């Protein structure tokens, strides 16, 4: 196991008094973080050795989350960050899957009782579990649920990042300090980070991307301003109080922020030099919305939870996307079809350690050092890479293959379609049907959208059903296709 604490604080020219973290909670220097880590080390030592034990953190306060993360790592425990935006079913699934020895949890957050869900899970498994709970993420009470001890991990794992997976079943992405170092270098290169920067983050630090961004900023002694609340009034107030020259978020969050604040561009956007966008594809609607922001370079970052940031756009995305590899990353395209579409594979010097308790899944995607991303790309004549969809999202309809990304792009070419997501759902005759969910602007009916598609693609690619919805569901920052498939099956929409 590596020491994240030593990696951060053994840096050259360390100014411990420099303010490096600002949230809705307050401002924090490197010295404040060091003292916070010491407090949590003392707290954890009261319950004995935690080496090899899985420690779940359901901690919405970013400073407390960071201090706990570094303290657990110092004591050679394994950090399991869990989003405070999960609710009962998703949270219970992750707890049942990971079976943490120790849980730090906020009691109540955004109207949800985390304590009860954690208690119910701990009592149901009838194994020893130590629960730390708090009203404010500062003062912690302790409860021990009795039972036989859980086995500890013998592998050198520093963090297990949990994702919902494409089927809704949790996956645990195991990473170590070397993974963090590689990702820090990649993020620093793509965002051109320096100590003089003030970086604004609209990313959940409980996810591996947000966690790596947090650690990278602290390591580089960048002043990182990160929101703990994803309520836009809270985000806008924080950005107004702490204007930034660089910003990282997803395209959908940035678009929503801009629509709410564009009447005051000088306050929010004039100081910006770089906006880094990741987690979603860039839509034509997004480009159109942000076209008026001047003197600011917008880049797209491509990465995976398993490997970190792999590529970033060299140019401003509003002029097209030309990818550059981050230091040490390699790519290849395999199994190329007659249409020139193949699967993107990636190799890095420090990828993930595998999926927790799923060596079968690890072997499926990791072969001879190459990670099979599942992303389908087309290599153009100019050797540029164009993303067209996901292999696992591929719909097989009556013996024909339909790439959802192709149909999504087609639908968003309609002037009244703001966003489109296409999924495959089981069908008794054709194997799968093509189902589209669209968010529209103005007046448009599904008949018009069917006709629009029929004029442009083969009949088998035209959606069998199109549902107009108010918004697309999102889970952990990504489109929730599991829910959309369920909606289609239940025919909740007319």
UniProtKB/TrEMBL annotation:
<protein>
    <submittedName>
        <fullName>Long-chain acyl-CoA synthetase</fullName>
        <ecNumber>6.2.1.3</ecNumber>
    </submittedName>
</protein>
<dbReference type="GO" id="GO:0031956">
    <property type="term" value="F:medium-chain fatty acid-CoA ligase activity"/>
</dbReference>
<dbReference type="Pfam" id="PF00501">
    <property type="entry name" value="AMP-binding"/>
</dbReference>
<dbReference type="InterPro" id="IPR020845">
    <property type="entry name" value="AMP-binding_CS"/>
</dbReference>
<comment type="similarity">
    <text>Belongs to the ATP-dependent AMP-binding enzyme family.</text>
</comment>
<dbReference type="InterPro" id="IPR042099">
    <property type="entry name" value="ANL_N_sf"/>
</dbReference>
<dbReference type="InterPro" id="IPR000873">
    <property type="entry name" value="AMP-dep_synth/lig_dom"/>
</dbReference>
<feature type="domain" description="AMP-dependent synthetase/ligase">
    <location>
        <begin position="33"/>
        <end position="356"/>
    </location>
</feature>
<dbReference type="InterPro" id="IPR025110">
    <property type="entry name" value="AMP-bd_C"/>
</dbReference>
<dbReference type="Pfam" id="PF13193">
    <property type="entry name" value="AMP-binding_C"/>
</dbReference>
<feature type="domain" description="AMP-binding enzyme C-terminal">
    <location>
        <begin position="406"/>
        <end position="473"/>
    </location>
</feature>
<keyword id="KW-0436">Ligase</keyword>
<dbReference type="GO" id="GO:0004467">
    <property type="term" value="F:long-chain fatty acid-CoA ligase activity"/>
</dbReference>
<dbReference type="InterPro" id="IPR045851">
    <property type="entry name" value="AMP-bd_C_sf"/>
</dbReference>
């Amino acid at each position: 196991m590596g020491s994240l604490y030593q990696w951060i604080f053994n840096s050259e020219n360390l100014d411990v008094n420099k303010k490096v973290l600002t949230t809705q909670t307050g401002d924090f220097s490197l010295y404040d973080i060091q003292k916070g880590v010491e407090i949590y080390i003392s707290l954890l030592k009261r319950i004995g050795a935690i080496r090899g034990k899985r420690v779940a953190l359901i901690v919405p306060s970013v400073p407390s989350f960071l201090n706990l993360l570094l303290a657990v790592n110092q004591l050679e425990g394994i950090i399991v960050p869990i989003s405070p935006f999960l609710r009962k079913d998703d949270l219970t699934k992750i707890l049942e899957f990971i079976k943490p020895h120790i849980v730090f949890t906020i009691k109540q957050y955004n109207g949800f009782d985390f304590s009860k869900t954690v208690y119910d899970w701990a009592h149901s498994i009838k194994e020893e579990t130590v629960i730390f709970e708090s009203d404010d993420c500062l003062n912690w009470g302790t409860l021990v649920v009795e039972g036989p001890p859980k086995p500890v991990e013998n592998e050198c794992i520093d963090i297990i990042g949990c994702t919902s997976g494409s089927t809704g079943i949790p996956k645990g992405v195991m990473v170590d300090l070397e993974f963090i170092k590689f990702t820090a270098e990649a993020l620093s290169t793509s965002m051109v980070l320096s100590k003089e920067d003030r970086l604004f983050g609209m990313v959940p630090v409980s996810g591996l991307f947000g966690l790596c961004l947090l650690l990278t900023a602290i390591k580089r002694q960048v002043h990182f301003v990160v929101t703990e609340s994803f309520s836009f009034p809270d985000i806008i107030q924080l950005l107004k109080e702490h204007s930034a020259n660089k910003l990282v978020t997803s395209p959908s969050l940035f678009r929503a922020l801009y629509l709410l604040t564009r009447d005051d561009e000088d306050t929010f956007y004039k100081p910006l030099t770089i906006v880094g966008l990741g987690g979603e594809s860039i839509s034509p609607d997004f480009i159109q919305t942000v076209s008026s922001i001047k003197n600011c370079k917008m880049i797209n970052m491509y990465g995976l939870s398993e490997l970190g940031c792999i590529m970033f756009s060299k140019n401003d995305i509003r002029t097209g996307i030309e990818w550059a590899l981050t230091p040490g990353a390699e790519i290849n395209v395999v199994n190329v079809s007659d249409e020139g579409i193949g699967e993107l594979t990636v190799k890095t010097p420090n990828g993930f350690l595998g999926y927790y308790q799923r060596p079968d899944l690890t072997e499926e995607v990791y072969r001879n050092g190459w990670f099979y991303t599942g992303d389908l790309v087309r290599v153009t004549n100019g050797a540029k890479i164009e993303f067209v969809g996901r292999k696992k999202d591929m719909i097989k309809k009556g013996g024909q293959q339909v790439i959802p990304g192709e149909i999504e792009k087609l639908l968003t070419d309609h002037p009244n379609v703001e966003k489109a997501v296409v999924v495959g759902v089981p069908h008794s005759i054709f194997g799968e049907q093509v189902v589209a969910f669209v968010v529209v602007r103005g007046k448009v009916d599904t008949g018009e959208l069917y006709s629009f598609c029929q004029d442009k693609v083969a009949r088998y690619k035209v959606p069998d059903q199109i549902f107009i919805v108010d918004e697309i569901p999102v889970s952990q920052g990504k489109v929730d296709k599991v829910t959309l498939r369920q909606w289609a099956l239940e025919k909740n929409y007319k």
